[in-house]
Amino acid sequence: MAHTAGTKKLGSWFPTASVAKAAPVEGKCTILLFYHYCRPELEKDAKQRLIAFLQDTTGRLQLGGRLRVANEGINSTMSGTADAVREFADALTNWAAKAGKGPFLNPTPDYKYIDDLPPDRAFKDLKILPVNELVFYGVDEKHAPLVNGGTHLDPKDYHQKMKENDTVIIDVRNHYEAEIGRFDGQEKEGGAKYIDPKMRKSTDFKQWLAKDETKAELKGKQVLMYCTGGVRCERASALLNTEMGKDLGGIFQLQGGIEKYLQEFPEGGHWQGKNYVFDKREAFGVGNLAGVGGVVEGGKKKKEKAGKGLSEGVLGKCCVCACEWDRYIGKKKCYTCGVPVLMCSACCTLKPDKTPGKELTVRCPLCVQQNITVPAADVQLTDNGVGVSISKKTKSDGGRNRTNGKEGEGKSAPSVCKWGGGHAVDKKKTRAVKTFGKKCKLGDECTRSACYFTHPKDAKAKANEHSKRPHDSGSAAEVTKKRNVDTTVEKGSNIDILSKVMLSAKERKSVSQPHGDKEQKISKKTKISKKL
Ligand SMILES: [Zn+2]
Ligand SMILES: [Zn+2]
Ligand SMILES: [Zn+2]
After folding, report:
1. What's the rounded mean pLDDT across residues 7-27?
2. Which residue, 327, 226, 230, is CA-closest to 270?
3. Predicted local distance difference test score (pLDDT) of residue 467
4. Which bound ligand lies closest to the C-alpha atom of 200?
5. What are the pLDDT digits (tens) for 401-411?
6. CA of 95 to the centre of ligand 2 (A)
7. Residue 350 C-alpha to ligand 1 middle, in angstroms?
8. Neighbouring C-alpha atoms within 13 Å toward the C-beta of 146
9. Three-class SS state of 409
């Protein structure tokens, strides 16, 4: 039974994306990775035919994954059974051959298969995302023609090159990926010098390359480049060659990326730490190619609290307590630039990201080094997502929303990641509208922190608020929060006890972390609780 690939809006970034449910994989799951640049680029109708073919075939084979399709080609991570993903690859190759004239898939893409994974590593849906660039560098074919790209070396040859003198190795991934694993084992043995451009996103590469100190560091050197699967090196090496190829002793890129290298060198070779991946494996290391898959093993919390490392070979650190930690769990993001941050499970339970006054402890190492203090939420993307500016809203209210106070103080990150293209915000709005005025089936027992439904207590709380503070506008969200301080609850009931517990937690917070407006609100609540 084929799933139907309807066209669904996925936020403002992907207005024409299609999303379809994928069938759950039983038994073992296989991940298929491939990318392909079409030269010359596809015409618009050719791209549409390719998308239609992809929708049909992935639907028929019940595959999950992410496919980015542009005029310049296709970049994909897919999941399914071992047979299904291979059937897809064959079908795509055959279809491209039959499509006849034009640049489709010639030569055949380098299909990479990761077999024998647990079934939960499969994607739950399949997204086809029409994009302008396969990797968003903000650099086009005119300024960095792919034909100028670095020489491809297979993992064995690349491994040898890493041992050579006068050689540097550029990590073309983002800093948060490099933090937990990278090629720097060769450096201790006199091999290639590791260079991390410290990017928050790929658009930073162009800026990094334009710096004088970068040019000085690379001059006269043989340059190796690598990334996860190889695709990010294509345009990056073309740009490097175009900008300063004459001053270099050659540019080489790792064919198939870290994925292929670790298949060829199961002992790790020059690789240290874990390979961050953009699928359900999360990150994988030597000896565990299936990855950690979002699972945190129980019973380790005490150990971490004591500041002991989990095991040898952990390269990262928790952003809050600095214990050895290399897991991106809980979808924690840097408060000031939005990149994923490492937070240990013990720190996660304390929710520093949701604690007023503690937000700045949740920053990535780059923001800490660069002393960035303006929240990512107060920064707008400009220049088609490449640049940033501090948002007008923040300026007009004098910057009161900022932790560091007045406008003009503090520095914003040079680039900021915004996630989901506004999809999450849209979803939230839709939910709020759909549920407006409807009763919560949990009634007054509801303890959800941001429940959009109405509760009998909401009305009473609102009435109470109005009688006490006639000028308070009492937004729905505020009223919902104030349910916890309703004075009409029965003494000793669950809600009564719960509200006392919650209030005492808030009182503690207000004592230890005084924080402007919030502190005043909390002290009002405290008075109410004393009346109880
Ligand atoms: Zn921690
Ligand atoms: Zn940051
Ligand atoms: Zn509710």
Report:
1. 76
2. 226
3. 58
4. 2
5. 444 434 456 88
6. 44
7. 9
8. 19
9. coil
Question: What's the 467 CA to ligand 2 centre distance in angstroms?
Answer: 44
Q: How far apart are CA 192 and CA 194, in angstroms?
A: 6
Which residue from 369, 371, 319 is spatially nearest to 340, judged by alpha carbons?
319
Tokens matching residue 432: 């709020």
**Looking at the predicted structure, is the pLDDT value of residue 339 above 70?**
yes
Q: What's the pLDDT score for residue 429?
A: 65
Which residues are within 8 A (CB) of 349 and not within 5 positions of it... i.e. 6 or more apart? 301
- Which residues are registered as beta bridge partners of 223? 168, 251
Q: How far is the CA of 380 from the centre of ligand 2 (A)?
A: 15
Percent of the chain, pLDDT > 70? 73
Instruction: Please give the mean pLDDT across all residues of the chain.
Output: 79
Give the number of other Cβ atoms within 10 Å of residue 463's Cβ: 12
Which ligand has an atom closest to residue 324 CA?
1
Percent of the chain at pLDDT exceeding 90: 51
How many Cβ atoms sit within 10 Å of the Cβ of residue 440?
Answer: 17
Q: Sign of the C-alpha dihedral, residues 401, 403, 406, 410? A: negative
- Residue of higher predicted confidence among 339 and 394: 339
Selected catalytic residue, list 38, 227, 337, 344: 227
Is 318 known to be catalytic? no
Between the CA of 226 and the centroid of ligand 2 the distance, in Å, is 23
Ordered by where they begin, the domains of the chain are: 6-130 (3.30.70.100), 146-281 (3.40.250.10), 435-531 (no CATH)
Which residue, chain included where needed, has tokens 């299904």? 84
d(CA 159, CA 143): 30
Look-up of token digits 């299909």: 111
Give the ligand whose atoms come closest to the C-alpha of residue 439. Answer: 3
**332 C-alpha to ligand 1 centroid (Å):** 12
pLDDT in tens, 120-166: 999 999 999 999 899 999 998 899 999 999 999 999 999 999 999 99
| Cβ–Cβ under 8 Å, residues 192 and 250 | no
Number of Cβ atoms within 10 Å of the Cβ of 432 = 13
What is the dihedral angle through the alpha carbons of 228, 230, 235, 240, rounded to the nearest 10 degrees? Answer: 80
The per-residue pLDDT for 289 is: 79
Decide if 39 contacts 141 (C-beta within 8 A): no
Query: Residues 244-272: what's their mean pLDDT?
Result: 94
Ligand lying closest to the C-alpha of residue 368:
2
